[in-house]
Amino acid sequence: MATQTDAYRMAPSRAASRRRQKKNQLGAFGALSHVALIVWAVLVIGPILWTFLASFKTNPEIMGDAPLAMPDSFSWASWGRAWEKAHIGRYMLNTVLVVGVSTFFTMLFGSMAAYVIARFRFPGNRIIYYLFVSGLAFPVFLALVPLFFVVRNLGLIDTHVGVILVYIAYSLPFTVFFLTAFFKTLPNSVAEAAMMDGSSHTRTFFQIMVPMAKPGLISITIFNILGQWNQYLLPIVLLSGSVEDKWLITQGIANINTNAGYEADWPGLFAALSMAILPMMIVYIIFQRQIQSGLTAGAVK
Amino acid sequence: MRKYGFIFSFLVVPVILYAIFVISPYLQAFYISLTNWRGISANPQFIGFENFTRLLGDDVFWAAVRHHAVLLVAMPLITIAIALFFSFLLNVGGGSKSGKMAGVRGSKFYRVVYFFPQVLAVAVVGVLFQAIYRPDNTGVLNGLLELVGLGPVGWLIDTNLALWSIMGVIIWQGVGFYVVLFSAGMAAIPSEVFEAAALDGAGRFRLFFSITLPLIWDTIQVGWVYLGIAAFDAFALVQVLSVDRGGPDNATTVLPLEIWRTAFTFSKFGYASAMGVALFFLTITFAALSLRVTRRERIEV
């Protein structure tokens, strides 16, 4: 009887000690994994933070032997110079204009096409869908040379209209691909009820379907804003050196850099970089959930 | 019929835009690659496969292909390994909490932070890393090395190191996206699977290798294809970061850079398009092969 109780008592205590042992193992593993996570976080934040700090430094401070030192004083002078003299202000304005207009029309045309493809049966439906989706697979570089001439023959080279049209066209594949899947998941009943009440197809789309598709539309809108804002290749092909006043931000930044010799205004360069980074960081931090789900939605079922 | 009128009105603009700016350039590129077109003045002459035979004897072309091969193997391996490690910690590493597998503490924060570089324009990242990689002790990285008593390293001017330095930036920027991608994959694994394995005494290594890895194989495969396609791109970073656009001594050049330079600096449009076609076939072959090789029986959950 006594031995039996002992055995009973032993069992849980042995289990507990094993659990404790396991917990210790996890503890060491946990500590190491936290170190790894923190190191990567520092690697990511470090360069970005360093850019912001460098914008407050002076040329000798940046080009000196102590690149990691803090700036002596915090003055916004370099930000002013970058905005005015390096035309970052104008590039930013150009970019806002181009990206704003082209994202709007990308979403309008993309959702219209996706809606029709997703919810109507008509001859050629599949062909049009695959035509759009195939654009996801081709390297842009293959199209580069002819694209330049297509835009030039239309008289749109070196114009914002040209860039906007090209941005819309190249944003359509992902937009249509994603939104077609999205419109398919929406219930039929609401749209049918609206049609019964005599609403036209067009009205049903704009007043019923678009509001219902809002979460998907927001994800893809942000995705397109980010992609078009950060686009680098298309602007340098479509806006040549002779129309510097029409340049977009990434183009302007890459150019300040190539022109930067020993006399260069390094704090100004870093202020310009900071200005290009900030708006995207703000958009990202506000919408990080939608951005992350939007970007991965195509890949994970 | 009213329905067809509606379908037509919704499709006409997006399809025309897409046909003009995306489809037609891609189709033209194949034809231009068979000509000796050098610009507006000279008429393009059909020369068959001459451009392609010339490509075969072009050292710079083969240097670029070799760099893609290095990027194709090393970059996805490193990126996926780092991203898998972090996403496992962030999703499963914290053990079971009230019936759901949880990440280690702070996982939400890390997931947001790791994604930061993804929203920065590549041009911005390129300029930023130029300051980090500066060859003398004014560079951030060399400044850090100096703190531990190591001499300056010529990150971008050493022919053996330059490509790897650029690859480092691609990985730095990419990891966050794949952490999010794999996290989405891991979140889709029912937590009972982990629970059952943990009850059977599976440690973290078993949880990772026997459960997580096979169950998110599909997602890893998608990530692999994305990274492989990125290995064929890499244009902006090489253009901004490398010395002499693809240098030193062609040690970092990639096909997109050669296409861009051949077309827009040397006006050899036919030859550039031939490179574009080569790039197209390399990309497509890679995608097809990797989907075949990595295909595995789906594990039913």
TrEMBL record, chain A:
<feature type="transmembrane region" description="Helical">
    <location>
        <begin position="26"/>
        <end position="53"/>
    </location>
</feature>
<dbReference type="Pfam" id="PF00528">
    <property type="entry name" value="BPD_transp_1"/>
</dbReference>
<feature type="transmembrane region" description="Helical">
    <location>
        <begin position="266"/>
        <end position="287"/>
    </location>
</feature>
<keyword id="KW-0472">Membrane</keyword>
<dbReference type="GO" id="GO:0005886">
    <property type="term" value="C:plasma membrane"/>
</dbReference>
<feature type="transmembrane region" description="Helical">
    <location>
        <begin position="161"/>
        <end position="183"/>
    </location>
</feature>
<protein>
    <submittedName>
        <fullName>N-acetylglucosamine transport system permease protein</fullName>
    </submittedName>
</protein>
<comment type="similarity">
    <text>Belongs to the binding-protein-dependent transport system permease family.</text>
</comment>
<dbReference type="InterPro" id="IPR000515">
    <property type="entry name" value="MetI-like"/>
</dbReference>
<feature type="transmembrane region" description="Helical">
    <location>
        <begin position="127"/>
        <end position="149"/>
    </location>
</feature>
<feature type="transmembrane region" description="Helical">
    <location>
        <begin position="204"/>
        <end position="226"/>
    </location>
</feature>
<dbReference type="GO" id="GO:0055085">
    <property type="term" value="P:transmembrane transport"/>
</dbReference>
<keyword id="KW-0813">Transport</keyword>
<keyword id="KW-1133">Transmembrane helix</keyword>
<feature type="transmembrane region" description="Helical">
    <location>
        <begin position="91"/>
        <end position="115"/>
    </location>
</feature>
<dbReference type="InterPro" id="IPR035906">
    <property type="entry name" value="MetI-like_sf"/>
</dbReference>
<feature type="domain" description="ABC transmembrane type-1">
    <location>
        <begin position="92"/>
        <end position="287"/>
    </location>
</feature>
<keyword id="KW-0812">Transmembrane</keyword>
<keyword id="KW-1003">Cell membrane</keyword>
Automatic annotation (TrEMBL), chain B:
<keyword id="KW-0812">Transmembrane</keyword>
<feature type="transmembrane region" description="Helical">
    <location>
        <begin position="7"/>
        <end position="27"/>
    </location>
</feature>
<feature type="transmembrane region" description="Helical">
    <location>
        <begin position="269"/>
        <end position="291"/>
    </location>
</feature>
<feature type="transmembrane region" description="Helical">
    <location>
        <begin position="112"/>
        <end position="133"/>
    </location>
</feature>
<keyword id="KW-0813">Transport</keyword>
<feature type="transmembrane region" description="Helical">
    <location>
        <begin position="201"/>
        <end position="217"/>
    </location>
</feature>
<dbReference type="Pfam" id="PF00528">
    <property type="entry name" value="BPD_transp_1"/>
</dbReference>
<keyword id="KW-0472">Membrane</keyword>
<keyword id="KW-1133">Transmembrane helix</keyword>
<protein>
    <submittedName>
        <fullName>N-acetylglucosamine transport system permease protein</fullName>
    </submittedName>
</protein>
<dbReference type="InterPro" id="IPR035906">
    <property type="entry name" value="MetI-like_sf"/>
</dbReference>
<comment type="similarity">
    <text>Belongs to the binding-protein-dependent transport system permease family.</text>
</comment>
<keyword id="KW-1003">Cell membrane</keyword>
<feature type="transmembrane region" description="Helical">
    <location>
        <begin position="169"/>
        <end position="189"/>
    </location>
</feature>
<feature type="transmembrane region" description="Helical">
    <location>
        <begin position="69"/>
        <end position="92"/>
    </location>
</feature>
<feature type="domain" description="ABC transmembrane type-1">
    <location>
        <begin position="65"/>
        <end position="290"/>
    </location>
</feature>
<dbReference type="GO" id="GO:0005886">
    <property type="term" value="C:plasma membrane"/>
</dbReference>
<dbReference type="GO" id="GO:0055085">
    <property type="term" value="P:transmembrane transport"/>
</dbReference>
<dbReference type="InterPro" id="IPR000515">
    <property type="entry name" value="MetI-like"/>
</dbReference>
<dbReference type="InterPro" id="IPR051393">
    <property type="entry name" value="ABC_transporter_permease"/>
</dbReference>
